[in-house]
Design a protein that fits this description.
This protein is mostly loops and about 130 residues long. It has a domain of about 80 residues. It is built from 2 helices and 2 strands; from the N terminus they run βααβ. A two-stranded antiparallel sheet has the order 1-2. GO terms for molecular function: DNA binding; DNA-directed RNA polymerase activity; ribonucleoside binding.
Length: about 130
Amino acid sequence: ISMFKTLIVFRIRIYSQTQALAVFFSTMSSECLKKVELHNGQNAIVAVNVHYGYNQEDSVVLNHASIDRGLFRTMHFHTFTSETDCDDSNSKSSSKLDLDFGKPNTANPRVDKLDDDGFPYVASYLYSG
């Protein structure tokens, strides 16, 4: 899920880990490609264990406290550019062109799950439409 954090301005979509760490071990090819200097992952200490004699194929056991502290937490950025044509003959004031962000003032029950900033409440169920 990680990526190099170079030329972020010129990318459209960015998937990045919030706390990228330096690697413990590296291969010769990663050193030749200078990947050691660009921290782009998490160091996870793992233990291979057999539980009650059963095989744990294709499974991952994670510590809940590590996840709560932010292990493998990622950020997603999406940038876009928009252009508007300004017509000087139109006598609209600049206050009408301002965008209002936040919870809309309406009696629609679909917006009851939004807080004052316009974001949904934590653990609220959201539906499309």
